[in-house]
């Protein structure tokens, strides 16, 4: 029997949008709209032959980011967006279609190169940034400029005398558009879960407002003076986060482009100084972008290096456990505990480990320590903590203990785990452990005294015949 289920048009539409086909359709429609809106803004500043502009060609930035993030399925939106933009700019079907095809092939090349050379979309290293900028400067835009202007030449719209200038204009405008938009969108995509969007908005619109104050209200008409003001502010934003610095640079660039579009600001031009004004405009934008990108990467790599050094300093290299340098941080966690359960500090020392080292050598002893550390880590509960003090000594913090007897039972079972045979290099090894245990106070003022007291409890356990747990009350 077939059961028929009636669905409303709204439910059918929701199901379509949630499907893969619906999502791809939405992405491509969004790309078409972005192409038309961003292209209109780019051409409003300056263009020739309908599609060649010396100012930033913003659609290229959206197209490159789209294909790097979503892959070839976004290419139909790139093709149709460029086609409609070119037709709307007065081009015929042949040149418009040819240029749309060139831009689509450019997007496909970008996707293939990014996959081949494993571009990290988070731009986490100088290598990734150099790969992206090199791909834009040396491959994508030379390809686009040569073939695109070739289409215009074949269509009779590009005289041979101006071919060289048009190549430069096309290359420069597209490069600027991709460097302005693509890295910002990539960082937005990869870091969207951790971004403070309110702060990002403050940096973007704050820099745009400051730019309005400088160029429109105060009429600053000196490029060096303008950059002397913006560069320190950008570095401050970059120091907070690369994305915030890049957002501030984008806000500065887009507001400057808008002022120029309205014939205002430092880069507003007359017919006599058009090229020079646009070159100054592009220099200003590129300087801020490269500052945000490369200084941002330097700050990011510095933070990663410091984090790695911090991790290495706080990590035992043999077992991968935290070492004694992590102890203040571990005990500081105890200060923040606000429930009514106990935490117990347990000092564990292996019994018989020295004999293994003496008989089989330190290489075997290291393997035994790694095995014991793995057993303890696997045995402990979620929330418990383990670190290696050095040699065959470990510290354990048991959290959420209701009564000391509970902790003693847990440690007794742990000793049984440790006493299980170790099969290593055709040898069967066996050792035990002695554990001293004390309660951790809520407010810890002298960590060394606590460890010393736990150590005392451990030695009492050894005197009891080893393989025992001794609890010392405060």
Helix/strand layout:
Layout: H1 9-18, H2 20-45, H3 58-70, H4 75-88, H5 93-116, H6 126-154, H7 163-190, H8 197-217, H9 223-240, H10 242-261, H11 274-313, H12 327-336, E1 342-351, H13 353-360, H14 362-379, E2 385-390, E3 393-401, H15 404-419, E4 422-424, E5 427-429, E6 432-439, H16 447-463, E7 469-471
Helix pairs in contact: 1-2, 2-3, 2-4, 2-10, 3-5, 3-7, 4-5, 5-6, 6-7, 7-10, 7-11, 8-10, 9-10, 9-11, 10-11, 13-14
Structure at a glance:
With 474 residues, the protein is of the alpha+beta class. Helices cover 66% and strands 9% of the residues.
Describe the structure.
With 474 residues, the protein is an alpha+beta fold. 66% of the residues lie in helices and 9% in strands. It is built from 16 helices and 7 strands. The chain has helices at residues 9-18, 20-45, 58-70, 75-88, 93-116, 126-154, 163-190, 197-217, 223-240, 242-261, 274-313, 327-336, 353-360, 362-379, 404-419, 447-463; strands spanning 342-351, 385-390, 393-401, 422-424, 427-429, 432-439, 469-471. A 5-stranded mixed sheet has the order 2-3-1-6-7, with helices on both faces. Strands 4-5 form a two-stranded antiparallel sheet. Strand 6 (432-439), helix 16 (447-463) and strand 7 (469-471) form a beta-alpha-beta unit. Helix 9 (223-240) runs parallel beside helix 11 (274-313). The longest helix has 40 residues, at 274-313. The termini are far apart. The model is unreliable at 1-9 and 11-19 (pLDDT under 50).
């Amino acid at each position: 029997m077939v059961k028929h289920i009636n669905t409303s048009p709204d439910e059918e539409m929701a199901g379509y949008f949630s499907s893969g086909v619906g999502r791809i359709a939405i992405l491509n429609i969004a790309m078409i709209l972005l192409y038309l809106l961003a292209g209109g803004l780019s051409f409003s500043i300056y263009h020739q032959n309908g599609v060649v502009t010396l100012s930033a060609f913003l659609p290229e930035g959206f197209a490159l980011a789209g294909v790097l993030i979503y892959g070839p399925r976004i290419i139909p939106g790139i093709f149709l967006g460029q086609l409609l933009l070119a037709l709307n700019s007065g081009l015929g079907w042949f040149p418009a279609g040819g240029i749309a095809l060139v831009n689509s092939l450019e997007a496909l090349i970008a996707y293939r190169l990014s996959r081949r050379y494993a571009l990290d979309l988070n731009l986490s290293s100088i290598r990734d940034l150099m790969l992206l900028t090199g791909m834009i400067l040396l491959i994508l835009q030379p390809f686009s400029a040569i073939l695109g202007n070739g289409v215009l030449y074949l269509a009779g719209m590009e005289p041979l005398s101006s071919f060289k200038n048009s190549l430069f204009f096309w290359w420069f405008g597209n490069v600027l558009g991709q460097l302005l938009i693509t890295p910002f969108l990539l960082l937005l995509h990869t870091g969207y879960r951790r971004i403070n969007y309110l702060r990002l908005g403050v940096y973007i619109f704050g820099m745009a407002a400051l730019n309005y104050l400088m160029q429109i209200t105060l009429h600053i008409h000196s490029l060096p003076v303008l950059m002397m003001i913006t560069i320190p502010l950008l570095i401050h934003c970059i120091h907070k986060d690369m994305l915030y610095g890049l957002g501030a640079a984008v806000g500065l660039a887009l507001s400057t482009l808008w002022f120029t579009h309205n014939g205002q600001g430092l880069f507003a031009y007359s017919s006599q100084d058009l090229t020079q004004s646009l070159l100054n405009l592009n220099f200003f934008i590129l300087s801020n972008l490269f500052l945000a990108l490369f200084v941002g990467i330097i700050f990011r790599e510095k933070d990663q290096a410091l984090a790695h050094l911090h991790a290495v300093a706080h990590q035992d290299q043999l077992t991968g456990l935290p070492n004694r340098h992590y102890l203040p941080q571990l005990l500081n966690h105890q200060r923040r505990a606000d429930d009514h359960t106990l935490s117990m500090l347990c000092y564990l020392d292996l019994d018989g480990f020295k004999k293994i080292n003496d008989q089989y050598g330190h290489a075997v002893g290291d393997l035994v320590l790694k095995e014991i550390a793995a057993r303890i880590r696997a045995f402990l509960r979620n929330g418990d903590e383990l670190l290696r003090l050095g040699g065959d000594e470990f510290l354990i913090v048991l959290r959420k203990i209701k009564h000391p007897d509970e902790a003693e039972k847990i440690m007794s079972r742990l000793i049984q785990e440790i006493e299980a045979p170790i099969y290593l290099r055709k040898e069967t090894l066996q050792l035990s452990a002695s554990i001293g245990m004390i309660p951790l106070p809520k407010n810890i003022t002298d960590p060394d005294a606590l460890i010393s007291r736990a150590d005392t409890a451990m030695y009492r356990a050894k005197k009891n015949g080893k393989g025992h747990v001794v609890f010392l009350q405060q």
